[in-house]
Write a structure and sequence with these properties.
The structure is a single chain. This protein is α+β, with helices and mostly antiparallel strands. It is built from 13 helices and eleven strands. It has three domains: 68 residues, no CATH class; 63 residues, Dna Ligase, domain 1 (2-Layer Sandwich); 157 residues, D-amino Acid Aminotransferase, Chain A, domain 1. The strands form three sheets. Strands 7-6-5-10-11 form a five-stranded antiparallel β-sheet. It has a four-stranded antiparallel β-sheet with strand order 1-4-2-3, sandwiched between helices. Strand 10 and strand 11 form a beta hairpin. The chain is globular, with a radius of gyration of 21 Å.
Length: 334
C-alpha cells in the first residue's frame, strides 16, 4: 500500500514531458522497445520507489533485480528522512543562522547575523575581514552565496542591500588546505559526509569548476566518492552531464588516488556533531578541510540522494542501501 501511495503521488506531480523524454533517451541508448521501457519504469516505481529520473540517473535499465534492490531511490531516501528527522528540529539545519548558533564550536570562523539593528557591528566585522561571505538564511544548492570585498562597498548601503536580499548571514571567508585548493582555487572544495544515526555511511569530495565560487554539483561542479575506510578517491569525478574526470579540467590536478587530508578527523567531527541534535538522525555535512583543522560550512537535513551510487562510482553495480541498513543495525546493537 505504501508503494502504491508513493506511485500515485508521483503520477499526480509528474512532469510528463520529462518522463517521455527519458523513455526516448533510454531507447536511443539501449535500442529497447519504448513500451517495455515505459512498463519497466512503472514497475521500478512500484517495486523500488524509483521515479523516472532515478531510473535514468542510476541506469536501472542496466541492472538486474538484485542490483536494483540496493539502490537508494528518491522514495527510499524520503523514507529515511521521514523516519529519522523530526520536523520539530529541522529548523537547526534549514536556517543557516540557527545552524551556526548550535554548531558554533565546529565553525572555526567569525560570523554575524544581520538583524536590521546592528549596522555598527557589521562595520566592525567588515573592518576585521577584507573578504566576507554572504548567504541567504534558508536557500540551498549554493544559491545566493557571494563573496564580497569590503573595500569595494559603502558599508551602509551594502548592509541595506543584504537585508533586502535576505543575505543575513555574514561569515569570515573559510580557508582550505593547499591540497584541495590546488584542485580549484576559486571555490571551497568541500567534503560532503553523510551520517545516519551517528555513523558515517558515505562521503564525497565536491569540486568547483568553470571559475565558479561554489562547488555545488548543480552549479557545474564535480563530485567524486571518497572511500570511507581510508579517505582515498578511487573513481573519477563526474559532472551533471555525466562527463568523467581523472584530472581537473581547469587545473589538470589529479583527482583519482587523492587522499583527503585529516580524514579520520573529518569522520570524528561529523560523528560527534551528529550527537548534538539526535532528533535529526540523517544529515549531510559540508566540511572544509582547513590548513590546521576541519570545520563545517553547513549541515543539511535533506541529503540529496542524486550524488549517491552513480553508475561510474558503483562497486559491482551495487548501491548504498546495504551500508545504510548496516548503520541502522549498529544503532540497534548499541
Amino acid at each position: 500500500m505504501k508503494k502504491i501511495k508513493y506511485l500515485f503521488k508521483r503520477i499526480i506531480s509528474m512532469n510528463y514531458k520529462g518522463f517521455f523524454q527519458i523513455i526516448k533517451e533510454v531507447h536511443e541508448k539501449t535500442n529497447k522497445n519504448s513500451i517495455l521501457i515505459f512498463l519497466d519504469i512503472v514497475y521500478c516505481g512500484l517495486r523500488y520507489q524509483a521515479g523516472y529520473i532515478d531510473y535514468n540517473l542510476y541506469e536501472m535499465y542496466r541492472m538486474n533485480k538484485f542490483e536494483r534492490k540496493t539502490i537508494i531511490t528518491r522514495g527510499i531516501n524520503n523514507e529515511y528522512i521521514k523516519k529519522y528527522n523530526n520536523p520539530n528540529f529541522i529548523k537547526y539545519f534549514t536556517k543557516k543562522t540557527e545552524f551556526n548558533k548550535v554548531f558554533s564550536k565546529y565553525l572555526n570562523r567569525d560570523w554575524l547575523e544581520l538583524t536590521g539593528n546592528n549596522l555598527k557591528e557589521f562595520k566592525k566585522f567588515c573592518k576585521n575581514h577584507e573578504i566576507i561571505v554572504v548567504k541567504p538564511d534558508s536557500e540551498s544548492c549554493g544559491k545566493g552565496v557571494e563573496l564580497k570585498k569590503t573595500k569595494d562597498y559603502k558599508l551602509d548601503k551594502l548592509y541595506e542591500e543584504l537585508i533586502a536580499n535576505n543575505q543575513i548571514l555574514v561569515e569570515e571567508q573559510a580557508i582550505q588546505c593547499d591540497t584541495l585548493s590546488r584542485l580549484h582555487p576559486e571555490s571551497i572544495n568541500t567534503v560532503r559526509v553523510v551520517t545516519l544515526l551517528g555513523t558515517v555511511v558515505v562521503a564525497f569530495l565536491r569540486i568547483g569548476n568553470n571559475h565558479n565560487h561554489v562547488d555545488n554539483f548543480n552549479h557545474e561542479g564535480l563530485v567524486a566518492p571518497i572511500d570511507i575506510q581510508d579517505g582515498i578517491i578511487k573513481y573519477p569525478a563526474i559532472d551533471k552531464k555525466k562527463n568523467l574526470y581523472e584530472k581537473h579540467p581547469l587545473t589538470n590536478k589529479e583527482i583519482i588516488n587523492l587522499k583527503i587530508p585529516k580524514w579520520e578527523e573529518i569522520k570524528k567531527l561529523c560523528e560527534n556533531a551528529a550527537l548534538e541534535i539526535p532528533e535529526v538522525g540523517y544529515i549531510g555535512w559540508d566540511v572544509c578541510v582547513g590548513k590546521d583543522k576541519c570545520f563545517f560550512i553547513e549541515g543539511n537535513e535533506f541529503p540529496g540522494h542524486d550524488l549517491y551510487q552513480l553508475p561510474a562510482h558503483r562497486d559491482n553495480n551495487i548501491g548504498l542501501l546495504p551500508k545504510f541498513k548496516q548503520a541502522e543495525e549498529r544503532k540497534v546493537e548499541k
